[in-house]
Specification:
This protein is of the alpha/beta class and about 220 residues long. The chain has 2 domains: about 130 residues, 3-Layer(aba) Sandwich (Rossmann fold), CATH 3.40.50; about 90 residues, Rossmann fold. About 50% of the residues lie in helices and about 15% in strands. It is built from 9 helices and 8 strands. Strands 2-6-1-7-8 form a 5-stranded parallel beta sheet, with helices on both faces. The chain has a 3-stranded antiparallel beta sheet with strand order 3-4-5. Helix 2 crosses helix 4 and helix 7 packs across helix 8. The structure holds 2'-deoxycytidine-5'-monophosphate. The site of 2'-deoxycytidine-5'-monophosphate (DC) has 15 residues, from helix 2, helix 4 and helix 8. 2'-deoxycytidine-5'-monophosphate binds next to helix 2, helix 4 and helix 8.
């Protein structure tokens, strides 16, 4: 039987950093489901579809095949045979992913792939609906969050380190909008599962968060 850890939480809470480290420490596979939604978003953008064009997006999704592979342990997302991993982490793609993931056929399109990965492997899977919808029977569920101010500050620092000149108020506003949309959509909204452990990373270092979650893994295994 595979061991499944679900980590859900809002954008910028540190899910992927934490999940990657934990996966390495535990020799689990890290599955980034946000990257799958982002790959579909790349497809919709390339098709010239507007994020509000529900009919167009729901029709187009049937022509997108998303799979994942691992290169030196790092997840690669393949869209219709092309490795689109380098194009996933832009604001445009993130916004399209958040907007298009509200549509049922878009979510249904990725569900089977996510569930079969977890069935066949020990995984740490992060996203918005992993503990509530994708893996309701996960062995351990974590809801990882942080204040909007702290998440905006982290994103700001990241962009400054990349040599950009970001506006922190704009970053904060984008995060608030993304949170609202992810939490209030009709299908599979972001929320803490009843049996998830809440971890607020606002005042914690990465190591402290990893340690905290690892201690729960030990208790459960
Ligand atoms: O985690 P991320 O920023 O890469 O996710 C991008 C968007 O994808 C997010 O705003 C909402 C959507 N998403 C989702 O609806 N369900 C998931 N399990 C993961 C991501």
């Amino acid at each position: 039987m595979s061991y499944n850890i679900a980590i859900d939480g809002p954008a910028g809470a540190g899910k992927s950093t934490i999940a990657k480290t934990l996966a390495k420490n535990l020799s689990f596979i890290y599955v980034d489901t946000g990257a799958m939604y982002r790959a579909l978003a790349v497809f919709f953008i390339r098709q010239g579809l507007d994020k509000d064009n529900e009919e167009g997006i729901c029709a187009a999704v049937k022509n997108a095949t998303v799979t994942i592979e691992y290169k030196n342990g790092v997840q690669q997302v393949i869209l219709n045979g092309e490795n689109v991993t380098p194009y996933l982490r832009t604001e445009e793609v993130g916004n399209m992913a958040s907007a298009s993931s509200v549509y049922g056929p878009v979510r249904a399109h990725l569900l089977e792939l996510q569930q079969s990965l977890a069935h066949e492997n020990d995984v740490i899977m992060d996203g918005r609906d992993i503990g509530t919808c994708v893996l309701p029977n996960a062995d351990l569920k974590i809801y990882l969050t942080a204040s909007v101010e702290e998440r905006a500050r982290r994103r700001y620092t990241e962009l400054v380190e990349k040599g950009e000149n970001p506006d922190i108020e704009k970053i904060k506003k984008d995060i608030e909008e993304r949170d609202y949309r992810d939490m209030h959509r009709e299908i599979a909204p972001l929320k803490q599962a009843d049996d998830a452990i809440l971890v607020d990373s606002s005042n914690m270092t990465i190591d402290e968060v990893v340690e905290t979650i690892a201690s729960h893994v030990k208790k459960k295994r």
